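re: ur question from yesterday

yeah so i grabbed the chain u mentioned. its 142 aa long if i counted rite. heres the sequnce exactly as i have it in my notes:
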Amino acid sequence: MKSQQKAIDYYEKNKGLVTVSTPQEVLSAQNLPYFIGISNRTTGAKNISMNMVIIPPAGVAEPHYHATYETGIYLIEGEVETFFGNDLEQSIINKAGDFLFIPPNIWHQPKNLSNTQEARAIVVRNDSHEQEAVIHEKPKSI
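ran it thru and got these structure tokens back, copy pasting raw so excuse formatting
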């Protein structure tokens, strides 16, 4: 936490560039390993966050939606099927190199299709807070 406060203090003092090096792993609101990069808390950002998420082999996130923000995802490695819709009745499969856009208020649940390799993605949101607007529910399981 000291390095995060140091980054914010630097930004407030200099209004310059801020680097977040090797963020610590935390558990996301979706119950996945998460690495908080750029956010209000780590850099003083006002309107954006940029983080990395890992979906373990055969891992599945908790069903959720983002109440107030749009999300862009770049899949670095792996193959992920994302179920979406009110009852998670639709799905789309993305592979490394794909970009995925998720509008606000769309129920979704990503699942790693590999039983042996993790999926890794960069997640960008037009909300500088990391997880505050993530809403959960458990529609039918997949």
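noticed a couple things. Residues 2-136 form a domain with the Jelly Rolls fold (CATH 2.60.120.10). also The radius of gyration is 16 Å.
anyway ttyl
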